[in-house]
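Model: Ready when you are.
Researcher: Fold this.
Model:
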Amino acid sequence: MSESTTVEQRWVAFGPAGAVGAIHRTAEGFQMKLLDDDTYRGTYPTLEVAKSALHAALEPGSEWPDFREH
């Protein structure tokens, strides 16, 4: 049996150099990963918490990304 995740909404995070990561809303919560990640880094209860987690995963001193829903 394989597991599957249905993505209900997606936000792409953009920094000065372009896209840096994404947040996906699923039935379980909000999942976050950076572009280079193979898997999600975790599931978070709210979009704001997932945005904060994504920002925290960026290099120290990185600006807050611009999140755009896709």
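Researcher: Now this one.
Model:
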Amino acid sequence: MHKGISTAAGLLFGFALDRVFADPRRWHPVAGFGTAAAALEQQTYADAHRAGILHETVAVGSVLAFAAVAARGGLLATTLATWTVLGGRSLARAGRDMADRLDAGDIDAARELLPSLCGRDPSVLDADGLARAALESIAENTSDATVAPLLWGAVAGVPGLLGYRAVNTLDAMIGYRNERYLRFGWAAARTDDVANLVPARVTGLLTVVLAPLVGGTPGQAWQAWRQDARKHPSPNAGVVEASMAGALGVRLGGRTQYRYGAELRPTLGTGRAPETEDLRRAVRMSEAVQIGAVAVSAALALLRR
């Protein structure tokens, strides 16, 4: 089978598996990588950039070496790798569960669910804060959990899929600007920024094009992206969150409380504060963008030589 056809088919089959089965609740390979990376950190940690660079090189390099061997499995390997790294179905399910709990007025249950979506401190958030946090997480993780791995898989096959997931996982683990990880996590955060530069913008473009599906307009989504994305401290999260805010006609950003401290995020969009129904609309947008991303990625893989 032609390599491009095999890769495209593997991406489509793996995406279908994610839609049907979602992430395995136990023995997930990504969780296994996280455990191994945490153990490695015990050996490599130092409050210095060079230690973080070594940690990133060893952790991601090991995954790439494994992926290069696994890629010999052709279509089956690509299918399984795609299913392993995607998290779109689980993301949408968590978003809907959060909306259900907020609609039921069960704030405690909603707070318990938030850590599955993002790293913010749920104990200080009310219903509106939980809705905003979940919506912003849906926007960002649509890119991180689906669009980015699919695009990397399209251009680099199994190594692209697994390597991207390793980079993104390390950023989630140590890419914080707190006292412990400010220097050690620098390499992980910057590598993740580079890996997501193109995927975030593809996500933004898909959000602009698909805005009418959630009652928005491409013009509003594009305007929010162009006016507000650059205000965000992340070169990538700003793009996907601003375009989502514009598509939904809501306002995101503001004081954001993490476990390591608070950040004052810039305002994205010019609409009202998000409500529970907006969170449901964000989930629908996420699922539409995911479908668009797998179509684009499969087409891109077919162009490989």
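Researcher: Key takeaway?
Model: The two ends are 12 Å apart (CA to CA).
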